[in-house]
Amino acid sequence: MTQTTMPPTEKTQPVSAPHGTISDRSKAERKLGWLLAGPAFFVMLAVTAYPILQAAYESLFSYRLTDPDNRSFTGLDNYWVILTDSLWWKALGVTMLITVVTVLVELVLGFALAMVMAKALSSIRPIIRAAILIPYAVITVVSAFAWQFAFDINTGFVNSWFAWLPGVSADTDWFGGTGTSLLVICLAEIWKTTPFISLLLLAGLAQVPEVLQEAAKVDGATWWQRLWRVTLPNMKAAIMVALLFRTLDAFRVFDTIFVMTNGANSTESVSFLAYRQTISRLEIGLGSAVSVLLFLSVVLLATMFIKAFKVDLASARGEG
Predict the structure, then answer these.
(1) Tens digits of per-residue pLDDT, 208-235?
(2) Mean pLDDT on 111-137
(3) Do residues 147 and 175 touch, judged by C-beta distance below 8 A?
(4) From CA 144, how far away is CA 258, in angstroms rounded?
(5) Hey, what CATH topology would domain 60-316 get?
(6) Measured between alpha carbons, how far is 201 from 129 in angstroms, rounded to an integer?
(7) What is the mean pLDDT of residues 79-94?
(8) Which residues of 238-247 are buried (b: 16+ CB within 10 A; e: fewer)?
(9) How does the average pLDDT of the chain come out, rounded?
(10) CB-neighbour burial class of residue 194 (10 A; exposed 0-12, middle 13-18, buried 19+)
(11) What spatial distance separates the first Cα and last Cα of the chain, rounded to whole Å?
(12) Alpha-carbon gap, residue 289 to 287, rounded angstroms
């Protein structure tokens, strides 16, 4: 009985999905993802869709709440008024400044904390993680009041504790100028949300194959070389998620500004501008237009982040 064997030069190649198509594994994961996240997604869509559409509708009218009978359709005039007003551009500049400063600092500190949590001994790891996550558990308004109390010229302790620093004395009024006010706002935001970044980056660190780290050590790579060439490239998806979520959250900053300065000293953000137009001045049309512009800005930021990072989710799952 003769047996046929494959020639020694031929090897069996793994079967993979053709280029440009979706593998069966990817299809199954997408189906499972929709089953798990679909209900919450549709509930959130139903809750948020109406306010967004209502704001877009109200932005097309000249409508003041104290004069409901004098309501008239003005089309895009409200948007023209806002975009040609210096208040909008000042608020946008303040928002961008707070967003860039806080997100960059939080990314560096969050990564350092994630490394500490990842390398900590298993016996004390839960304690370290709980201690790091405490600020994120504090309500934003409570956190803002605490930071305002600490930096207050009359009741605060910062001036007495840090009087040895240049420019700091017992008479330093942190909320008396634009620069110092924004500094305190940024510090409060960084303290509050750095744990959120560290938690996301910790999940990304867990996805870095240990075999790659060991291979780099064998090849003589230094710690910095392993960080830039092994760790960070394999954390690209986690970094994108952390930056995206935190940037969108920082761009909508409101609570901290409302508590600390109430928009004084040119610290008004876009969200605060929408609040002032809608709640303080009762200009429903103009306030709705600001809200719509804020929403479009957030959508634009999200699109830019996704396009800039170009994360291949299939490769991140190991399908590449």
Answers:
(1) 888 888 888 888 888 888 888 888 888 8
(2) 82
(3) no
(4) 9
(5) MetI-like fold (1.10.3720)
(6) 13
(7) 92
(8) bbbbbbbbbb
(9) 83
(10) buried
(11) 43
(12) 5
**Is 23 or 260 the better-scoring residue by pLDDT?**
260
| Residue found under tokens 């490769």 | 315
The string of pLDDT tens digits covering residues 151-192 is 998 888 888 888 888 888 888 889 988 999 999 999 999 999
Taking CA 131 as the corner, what is the angle to CA 125 and CA 137, rounded to the nearest 5 degrees?
125
Kindly tell me the burial class for residue 291, based on how many C-beta atoms sit within 10 Å of its own C-beta (0-12, 13-18, 19 or more): buried
Alpha helices by DSSP H, the chain: 24-58, 77-83, 86-119, 125-137, 140-151, 158-161, 178-206, 210-218, 223-226, 232-234, 236-251, 255-260, 270-275, 284-309, 313-316
Structure tokens at 272: 């605060």
Q: Which residues are within 8 A (CB) of 100 and not within 5 positions of it... i.e. 6 or more apart?
A: none
- What's 4's DSSP letter? -
pTM listed for this prediction: 0.81
Helical packing angle, 236-251 and 86-119, nearest 10°: 140
Q: Report the distance separating Cα 291 and Cα 52, nearest Å.
A: 9
Answer whether residue 203 shows pLDDT above 70.
yes
- CA–CA dist 207, 9 (Å, integer): 37
User: Can you give the pLDDT at residue 312?
Assistant: 52
Q: Which residue type occupies 200? A: L
